Structure formats: structure tokens, C-alpha cells
């Protein structure tokens, strides 16, 4: 196989984008973007740092968890997790991030590209608290590009089609996969039980 390595060859294969695909890009969060964020419970965060592999990390919470601070900035709470900090370490080295917000049942998505900072100001964390529990910190993203992405990927994948949901029992549990991958000595049921207890105790 031969790889395409130049922009000229790439454009020769695909052609130029439709005018609408260029014009739809905004520099701020308009009313439609704000309403989308108010209803979105889930975002994928893409980040990278020199000398490291790129990373995409999921963040999710109740709809509207990403707080709109003004026409250009949003704050994404960081709840307790595995402490790998892949996204945050990348942001310290390179603040450029890409965000993809989803709403279950809606095939269009909202993309926001911009510059991120990590904040732990008490006043901000209070605004992001759930049941009185603050997030550990917040990722504040200043948007440079804001636009809606068309529905084709979700139409092809039928992601929101209930008939496309798998029977969870057809795949191993996370405990079973971890046992095989890293050679844990515990029984699978014990690993799954520990994971379940961790989820319940440290969700917020």
C-alpha cells in the first residue's frame, strides 16, 4: 500500500469542501451552540503533546454539565477518575484541544476547537458542584472554532437506533478483560465487584 503524503494528492482525491462547510464555522458560542450544550451529557476531548501519542478522553455528566461562561468560554468539570491525567498533562504541554459534544438521539454533533486551561478556583468549582460535591478541577476551553457536524456518521452507524444495541453478555466484563490483559490473580467476579464499588463510591 502507498500512503497519501501531500495536501495536493489529498485534495486531488477528495476535491474542495462545499462552501457551506467553510461558512458554518463560527468564532463564538451562538444561541444554537448554547442550547446544544445545555442538553449535552457527553463530550470527547482530543488533546496531544510533543513526543506523546494523541489522546481522546470521554467526559460525561447530567445534561448541561459543560458550563457556558461567556460567548467564547466553557468549563468542563473533572470528576474523580483513574488519575492518569492524560488530557491534563497534554494541555500543560500544548493547550490546543478538540471537543465533540453529543446529545443522545440527535445525529448532529457540536465541535469546538480551542485553547484549554486547567482551573481549580473555588468559585468556579462551586458552580460545577453536584449534590454539594465539587469537581477536582475544571477544564476551561476558549473556543476558536465552533460548528455543527452533519449526521452522516451517526446515520451510517445507527448509533442511536435501539435495535443496534448489543446484548452486553456477548462481550466479557471489564474485570474479565483486565484479568487477561494484565494477569490479575483475583477471580473475575472479585475484580468486577471491586470496580462496581469504586464506581458507586467515587462517581462524584
TrEMBL record:
Against InterPro entries, the record matches this protein to:
Pyridox_Oxase_FMN-dep, Pyridox_Oxase_N, Split_barrel_FMN-bd
What Pfam families does this protein's entry cite? PNPOx_N
Q: Which superkingdom does the taxonomy of this entry point to? A: Bacteria
Q: Which residues form the Pyridoxamine 5'-phosphate oxidase N-terminal domain?
A: 30-150
Q: What name does this protein carry?
A: Pyridoxamine 5'-phosphate oxidase family protein
| Protein's organism | Jiella pacifica
Amino acid at each position: 500500500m502507498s500512503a497519501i503524503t501531500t495536501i495536493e494528492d489529498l485534495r486531488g482525491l477528495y476535491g474542495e469542501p462545499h462552501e457551506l462547510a467553510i461558512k458554518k464555522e463560527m468564532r463564538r458560542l451562538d444561541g444554537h451552540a448554547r442550547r446544544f450544550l445545555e442538553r449535552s451529557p457527553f463530550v470527547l476531548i482530543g488533546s496531544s503533546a510533543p513526543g506523546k501519542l494523541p489522546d481522546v478522553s470521554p467526559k460525561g455528566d447530567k445534561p448541561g454539565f459543560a458550563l457556558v461562561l461567556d460567548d467564547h468560554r466553557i468549563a468542563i468539570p473533572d470528576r474523580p477518575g483513574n488519575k492518569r491525567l492524560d488530557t491534563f498533562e497534554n494541555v500543560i504541554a500544548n493547550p490546543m484541544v478538540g471537543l465533540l459534544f453529543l446529545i443522545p438521539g440527535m445525529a448532529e454533533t457540536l465541535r469546538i476547537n480551542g485553547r484549554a486551561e486547567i482551573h481549580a478556583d473555588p468559585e468556579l468549582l462551586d458552580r460545577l458542584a453536584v449534590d454539594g460535591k465539587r469537581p477536582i478541577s475544571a477544564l476551561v476551553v476558549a473556543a476558536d472554532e465552533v460548528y455543527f457536524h452533519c449526521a452522516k456518521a451517526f446515520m451510517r452507524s445507527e448509533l442511536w437506533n435501539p435495535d443496534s444495541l448489543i446484548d452486553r453478555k456477548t462481550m466479557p466484563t471489564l474485570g474479565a478483560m483486565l484479568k487477561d490483559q494484565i494477569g490479575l490473580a483475583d477471580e473475575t467476579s472479585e475484580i468486577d465487584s471491586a470496580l462496581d464499588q469504586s464506581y458507586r463510591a467515587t462517581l462524584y
